[in-house]
Design a protein that fits this description.
Shape of chain A: globular
Strand content of chain B: 15-25%
CATH architecture of chain A: Up-down Bundle
Structural class of chain A: mainly alpha
Number of strands of chain A: 0
Shape of chain B: globular
Largest interface: A-B, 54 and 59 residues
Helix content of chain A: over 70%
Oligomer: heterodimer
Number of helices of chain B: 33
Number of helices of chain A: 17
CATH topology of one domain in chain B: Alpha-Beta Plaits
Structural class of chain B: alpha/beta
Helix content of chain B: 25-40%
Order of helices and strands of chain A: HHHHHHHHHHHHHHHHH
Radius of gyration of chain B: 29 Å
Chain lengths: 470, 1066
């Protein structure tokens, strides 16, 4: 009875399922927790081996950097920032999807977020951890990097609050803290479910500890819901603020190519763009191998592709405005940066790759066929991530390498250490992500159950001729 | 993590404060032992190049009883001290090297009982922490320039020009500035040796005495030869005469790479074989024609000439002079020229002859002797252009008032061109006004002819003993000079019959083939004297006792007198005492000479008689010009390097890392060709090529420089060194001497350049030479400045106009009250780009050298850079130089982005850099539109040997890894001056404070002072109509103003309105 009710189209505009129709609470529990209890397969171990090796590169790269100084990177005069800040911005951008999905879509009551929010939040957390490495490492004397924090120093010296780097410190640390809290609070009911279905004592004790004594009482649910909503409220401005502040690192300066008022919205759009692309990149294989196709349905993927299309257009608009303003101002230095250096300069290849990936690629999502084709969206998502990395390269390296006085212009080339650290952070990210998949449910089980009940309820009402649910 | 503290000497404290007075518990038994000990103690990581196996065998050798016996000192220690009285001796023991007089003990054996003692009675002039200044001198290739050296706690740390010296007038060039580094160079030779065995001075003295005692009665030293640098030292001249008295048949030959052969030949011919040299007065010259003469940079008189010339480039001093230059290479002088004619070096004779012919008078008759010797070649258009140029020059020379012009021939040009130049000068009435003939400071003949005579002597078997004190002749001589073959046992079967003694600062290319090697004392370690180019004698006092047990050249030559040992100090003093017989109070006169560094009134007197062009015409008619290059051949040009000269400064890392003045290349030389020639030969810059000439081949990479004459290739000498222990110089660049022949030491046709496989990576500090139409280094004609066109007005408005409040000017203003408001002005009209300021800054501010690889990564550390831009067509561009260092913005973009307050605005307007607060985010550098900040990407200051540490200026922090640095306007000098000003309760005067760059600038292009004082020169320059601020429109309000460079083009050659200077294609 229930089954037929759910399979019936709920709404002509939402023809696809958010949860496959044949599940009840028990089967959802079984499906969604299965990958935690199952012994990791060969594939998991192989991937883990790969990511651990990459993590090893990070250890090598960082150790060498700390021992010799950042001269082992390719940074130079005038290109004071390069891979370090490119990777920083790239990773922070990737982190954006998590907060957006968790917080904003929650506040807007977008039910389809439920199946993917845990995933995206974990991604955010790990991406911000990777990002956080760079500001620390990129300083010449990282052992004094704590001077960027305001603390009661015996020197009586404070940070310089006019510097966007100090704003960065606050923005990134706040973001990391809130993201971690948000993710963990959301996990508590699921950790309790894991505790309850534990098969060994160790599992029960560990999951029991982390579930903070969750019993699922009405009072618990009440407090939990309020806390979750509050955190969502706190996170929401962060979605905008973090990348806005990151963009200030550039916009506040006077280098042509950096000194641009369009940067804050353009950076935020770019961040969401790359964040969603990264979610697609990860979720497509994950849902297949973790057997989550029933809860992460094609409709989720399609919706995310729509977000990618929309933010991709915003990013393209940003590029257009940069070039337009340069032309409109007729500022000699800006004209050089945007029309000569970027398009035809020594890094023109990177520029055109960026255009191909960020401006052209998302347009395929105008077509439903592409939006719903798994291979196409997966490749496109990877291209978007490459494109966004190129964008940061273009903004940072190209602008710095040719600024005001031609006498100081110089080429930047990365060294093996730069690549080691970049690949190493991918390894760190992958390692953390695989551990996450192993020990924590990748989908918010309690929320899916809730959604399923809501859908059932709605279907029931619908069956009685009233309006449909979302 | 490396948290090594800055500037603290690691363990070796003995040589830090007072390096000479050893506090080692067991002093070595003798000189060689101490040298060995020193070498062993200092054989740190950076010195591994210093012959590892060599030392091991020496130590083994050292252990044998025979050796110990052999090296036992003959006399009790201290017996050789100058009998100079109780007070002085105690004084010396106390102060060690810190006082100049201590150099009186600059001998090889030292008292054993020296101990470090605290100052119980401090001499009034010695206060720890306060610098002392000593006048001294640097002799380079037969000319001594006057120095003023700053010493701190016994260590010389900075060299400046002696303000009292008539040539220097306070200025110094790159070589003087870098002279200090060679003093402390850990690669310097330390051991006197015979073959491979270390020897004591006593053994050498005995050897020499035996030789002399045998030779003197037998043949009067007929089989003894000396090869020395030109003798411009009166004391050495006297010594030489005394040796010749003892050994009348011995012969002295002089040679130096600094060639004045041609000029000397010409003036000798003009003055009946008298030693005469020409001195020029650029202050009087309204029109100057340079025939391949790089008089602004080529030694020895360039400091004076540059200053005189620059004074005539300032519109405030009246009408500008006009400089025409004809040259094949692109020289500094060519860059300053109003009109530059690109011709092959061999065609300069044709230019000279054409001008002479047109001027007429005595010049015409000399010119007719040159008929057919050379002619302008090239396409008819090029020849037409050159002829128009020559006509314009002639017209201009004629139009000028008589005696107000000057024609000067270059050192690379043959005597014929010099004679022609002097003939033109004479015809134009310049003799006595802009051209003065004086008695040459170096009376003896010197040059390649002397070497030829020596080689013939040796070949004929007339020589048993050869003593070489000239710098490294086996490297510096042209490949066919023949001396190397004679000294090399592999090529000379009779080598065993010849005994060669060589003294030098380094074990170099020459020392490998000699029988005796004597490490020379650095000239800053001993007493000497020498004549400057104008004849003025300087007394050069030592600043420190010999660090590496070197032996002064004078003491070495004195061994041939077989008299009892006298230190250089004693010899010098006695010589000058002898010169001053009959004059009262020698002591006080001597002290004046020593303290002032010059002996007043010793300038060369004018030459007697007038130039006789009739006699000199033979030089022109006898000149055999090089064959014109065939169609696919190039003219090969050799030039002295602007940095390492003939190679003798090759081991100076400062100079190796100094960007070449024109190419901005570091740590290399290259085969320089014009872009057109490169296109014709299908050679890319950086491609390896084979340069063949006269049957010799050199594999050398190619680099293009706009403005070189087409069909020529220019290679700088002084590179490709492979001296035994010259670690810095070794393997840098390519040795062009292998192609050089004595017959054509400077240029010749018949060279070919063919592409070889492979490419070569050069390190350049500036890779982009166009300004991209940005108003950066402004440069216009005087008339344009007086009556600006619309376009110029627009540019001037952009760089000088009022800033729009709120738009360009939106940071808060500072109030300086009545205090200081430091500022600087740099006059581009005066700046030749000589780069002395760059090295001065490096020395003053403890700026590290980073090496070729790091420069390739664009991480050079020099705070002051000289931007060189070309304007106009790539084939024949104009060049403009622009020194840029931190401009100390009033509203500084670096300050507001530093997250930790490490770069802050001082209450006197400086952008202070707080090294110990810097965490190294590099945000300041990114946001600096001038890109003047330098970052310590690696620990560039680590691994200094104990002598290198002595070089550091104690007033300036030695920066650690991970720290940003930049020009401070020499804040340490400001602070030091402030002390005396504050004690006297007054403001710092303009005259008493100079930044290091300003101080050394030969053309006084840099001015520094407080902008709050309307009287100061810097304030007046800021208000000059030529003053503008670099990137003014950004609203950074720089404290450094640049002054527009003005040119004075000849309207006949450059119509005033033809300023549509289209830029080249690169």
């Amino acid at each position: 009875m229930a089954e037929t009710a759910i399979t019936a189209p709920l709404d002509p505009l939402e023809p696809r399922h958010l949860v496959a129709p044949h599940h009840d609470d028990a089967s959802l529990n079984e499906t969604l927790l299965a990958h935690v209890w199952a012994k990791p397969g060969k594939g998991w171990f192989m991937l883990f081996g790969v990511t651990l090796s990459a993590l090893g590169l990070l250890v090598i790269g960082v150790t060498y950097t700390l021992a010799r100084g950042i001269g082992v990177w390719g940074n130079n005069q005038p290109v004071g920032w390069a891979f370090d800040i490119i990777n920083f911005v790239w990773w922070v951008g990737i982190g954006h999807a998590g907060t957006l999905i968790s917080a904003i879509l929650l506040l807007f009551q977008q039910k389809w977020r439920t199946s993917i929010n845990r995933f995206a939040e974990a991604m955010t957390l790990f991406a911000v951890m990777c990002a956080g490495l760079f500001p620390l490492l990129h300083t010449g004397r990282p052992w004094f990097a704590f001077w960027l924090f305001p603390y009661p120093s015996t020197l009586g010296a404070w940070p310089q609050f006019r510097s966007p780097l100090v704003w960065d410190v606050f923005a990134i640390s706040t973001y990391l803290t809130v993201s971690a809290l948000f993710w963990y609070v959301g996990l508590i009911p699921d950790l309790a479910a894991l505790r309850d279905s534990s098969k060994t004592k160790v599992q029960r004790v560990v999951y029991g500890l982390f579930s903070l004594g969750w019993r699922g009482s009405g009072r618990h649910w009440h407090n939990y819901k309020i806390a979750y909503l509050l955190l969502a409220g706190i996170s929401t401005p962060l979605v905008v603020s973090v990348h806005t502040i990151v963009s200030f690192d550039f916009a506040v300066s006077l280098i042509p190519g950096w000194h641009t008022t369009v940067f804050p919205p353009y950076f935020v759009a770019g961040a969401v763009f790359s964040g969603f692309a990264m979610v697609i990149t990860l979720i497509v294989p994950a849902r297949k191998y973790l057997g989550l196709r029933d809860v992460i349905t094609d409709r989720h993927l399609e919706n995310m592709n729509k977000v990618i299309l929309a933010t991709g257009m915003l990013v393209s608009y940003g590029y257009m405005m940069e070039h337009f303003v340069a032309w409109y101002s007729q500022n000699q230095y800006e004209l050089w940066t945007f029309y000569v250096n970027r398009a035809t300069g020594p890094y023109a290849g990177v520029y055109w790759l960026m255009i191909a990936c960020n401006v052209i690629t998302p347009n395929i999502f105008w077509f439903k066929k592409c939006r719903t084709s798994i291979p196409i969206m997966w490749v496109a998502s990877i291209m978007v991530n490459i494109g966004m990395w190129c964008e940061r390269f273009i903004i940072i390296v190209t602008s710095l390498s040719q600024d005001f006085l031609p006498s100081s212009w110089a080429i930047y080339t990365p060294t093996w250490v730069d690549w080691c650290i970049y690949i190493g952070t991918l390894g760190l990210f992958g390692t953390l992500f695989l551990l996450f998949l192993k020990f924590v449910p990748a989908v918010a089980v309690s929320e899916v159950k809730e959604l399923q009940l809501e859908l059932k309820h709605a279907a029931h009402l619908n069956g009685h001729g009233t309006h449909g649910a979302h | 993590m490396n948290t090594k503290r800055d500037g603290v000497p690691s363990q070796d404290t003995s040589s830090f404060a007072l390096p000479v007075v050893s506090d080692r518990p067991a002093p070595a038994a003798d000189a060689v032992g101490e040298a060995l000990e020193h070498a062993a103690a200092n054989a740190s990581a950076t010195e591994t190049g210093y012959g590892r196996t060599y030392w091991r065998s020496l130590e083994e050798k050292l252990g044998t009883p025979e050796y110990l016996e052999e090296t036992r000192p003959e006399f009790p220690v201290g017996a050789d001290l100058a009998p100079s009285g109780f007070v002085r001796r105690e004084f010396m023991q106390l102060l060690g090297a810190s006082l100049a007089l201590a150099g009186a003990t600059a001998c090889s054996t030292r008292p054993q009982d020296e101990r470090l003692l605290p100052y119980t009675k401090t001499p009034p002039e010695v206060a720890p922490g306060n610098p002392l200044h000593y006048a001294s001198g640097m002799t380079l290739a037969g000319h001594t320039s006057g120095l003023l050296i700053t010493a701190r706690e016994g260590r010389p740390i900075k060299i400046e020009g002696n303000p009292q010296h008539p040539v220097n007038q306070g200025a110094a060039g790159v070589w003087e500035q870098a002279y200090l580094l060679s003093l402390y160079d850990p690669n310097r030779a330390r051991v006197m040796r015979q073959g491979k065995s270390p020897r004591a001075l006593r053994v050498l003295a005995e050897d020499v005495a035996n030789l002399v005692n045998k030779a003197a009665p037998a043949d009067g030293g007929a089989r003894l030869r000396f090869l020395t640098e030109p003798g411009n030292s009166p004391m050495m001249g006297d010594l030489r005469n005394r040796i010749l008295k003892k050994l009348p048949n011995a012969r002295f030959y002089s040679y130096t790479a600094m060639t004045q052969d041609a000029e000397t030949e010409a003036t000798r011919a003009l003055f009946g074989n008298q030693p005469v040299s020409a001195r020029y007065d650029f202050a009087q010259a309204d029109v100057v024609l340079s025939l391949d003469a790089d008089f602004l940079e080529s030694r020895p008189a360039n400091l004076t000439y540059a200053r005189q010339f620059a004074d005539r480039r300032d519109p405030k001093n009246g009408a500008l002079n006009r400089l025409y230059a004809a040259e094949a290479r692109f020289s500094i002088t060519g860059g300053m020229a109003d009109h530059r004619l690109r011709v092959k070096s061999a065609e300069v004779l044709a230019v000279a002859a054409a001008v002479a012919q047109a001027i007429g008078g005595p010049a015409a008759s000399v010119a007719s002797a040159a008929a057919g010797k050379a002619q302008l070649r090239g396409t008819s258009e090029e020849v037409q252009k050159a002829n128009a140029w020559i006509q314009a020059v002639v017209a201009d020379l004629r139009a000028a008032k008589p005696g107000r012009t000057l024609v000067i021939a270059g050192e690379r040009q043959p005597a014929a061109v010099h004679v022609l130049a002097q003939a033109i000068n004479s015809a134009l009435g310049n003799t006595g006004t802009t051209v003065h003939y004086v008695q040459a400071p170096v009376a003896e003949p010197f040059g390649l002819a002397q070497v030829r005579a020596l080689v013939e002597d040796i070949k004929a078997g007339r020589v048993d003993t050869l003593v070489i004190t000239a710098w490294n002749p086996l490297y510096a001589l042209p490949s066919d000079a023949g001396l190397a073959e004679l000294l090399n046992p592999a090529t000379n079967p009779d080598r065993a019959k010849l005994s060669v003694l060589y003294t030098g600062l380094y074990e170099d290319e020459t020392s490998q083939y000699v029988d005796w090697f004597v490490p020379a004392a650095h000239p800053l370690e001993t007493w000497s004297d020498g004549r400057a180019v104008d004849g003025t004698v300087s007394i050069a006092q030592p600043l420190i006792q010999p660090l590496f047990n070197g032996m002064p050249e004078s003491e070495l030559l004195a061994l041939f007198l077989t008299e009892s040992y006298r230190p250089a100090y004693q010899m010098l003093r006695e010589y000058w005492q002898g010169q001053a017989t009959g004059q009262a109070d020698f002591e006080s006169r001597w002290e004046t000479w020593v303290s002032e560094g010059i002996i007043a009134g010793t300038a060369s007197p004018a030459a007697s008689g007038a130039p006789d062009f009739g006699a000199a015409t033979a030089l022109v008619s006898g000149y055999n010009p090089p064959a014109a290059p065939a169609a696919n051949e190039l003219e090969l040009n050799f030039v002295h390097d602007y940095k390492v000269f003939d190679g003798r400064f090759g081991n100076s890392a400062w100079l190796q890392e100094l960007p070449d003045l024109i190419t901005k290349m570091v740590w290399d030389n290259a085969a320089l060709i014009s872009p057109q020639t490169a296109k014709d030969l299908r050679l890319e810059p950086g491609a390896m090529a084979e340069l063949s000439y006269g049957g010799q081949k050199l594999s050398v990479p190619v680099w293009t420089t706009p403005g070189l004459a087409d069909g020529t290739v220019t290679v700088a000498l002084g590179y490709g060194r492979n001296g035994l222990h010259e670690v810095v110089a070794k393997g840098v660049g390519f040795n062009a001497n292998v192609l050089r022949r004595a017959a054509a030491p400077w240029f010749d046709g018949g060279a070919t350049l063919t592409k070889a496989s492979g490419s070569y990576k050069f390190s350049l500090t500036q890779t982009h030479w166009r300004m991209e139409n940005r108003p950066i280094a402004l440069d216009m004609s005087v008339s344009e400045l007086a009556h600006p066109s619309k376009e110029t007005e627009h540019i001037l408005e952009r760089v000088q106009g009022e800033l729009k409040p709120g738009l360009q000017d939106n940071l808060p203003s500072f109030d300086y009250g009545n205090g200081y408001k430091w500022g600087m002005a740099i006059d581009l009209s005066r700046c030749t780009g000589c780069s002395a300021c760059v090295v001065a800054c490096q020395a003053e501010n403890n700026i590290p050298v980073v090496g070729k690889e790091q420069v390739a990564r664009s991480r050079e550390m020099q705070w002051l850079r000289i931007d060189r831009y070309f304007e106009g067509a790539e084939s024949d561009p104009k060049m403009v130089m622009q020194p840029v260092m931190c401009v100390h913005c009033e509203k500084a973009p670096c300050e507001y982005v530093c997250p930790v307050n490490a770069t802050v605005h001082s209450d006197e307007g400086l952008n202070d850099m707080v090294y110990n607060r810097c965490v190294g985010t590099r945000y300041c550098s990114n946001n600096c539109p001038y890109k003047v900040r330098r970052f310590n990407y690696l620990h560039y200051t680590s691994g200094k040997t104990s002598t290198e540490k002595m070089l550091m200026n104690p007033d300036v922090t030695v920066r650690n890894r991970g720290v940003m640095e930049k020009c401070t306007y020499c804040v340490q000098r400001i602070e030091r001056t402030r002390i005396s000003a504050r004690v006297e309760k007054r403001l710092i005067q303009e005259k008493e404070l100079m930044t290091a760059c300003q101080q050394t600038c030969p053309t006084q292009a840099i001015t520094f002072g407080s902008l709050n004082d309307k009287q100061q020169r810097v304030t007046q320059l800021h208000e000059d109509e030529r003053a503008y601020k670099l990137l003014h429109e950004l609203g950074t309000r720089p404290r450094t103003a640049h002054l527009i460079r003005v040119r004075n083009p000849n309207p006949a050659l450059e119509p005033a309105k033809s300023e549509a200077a289209t830029e080249g294609s690169h």
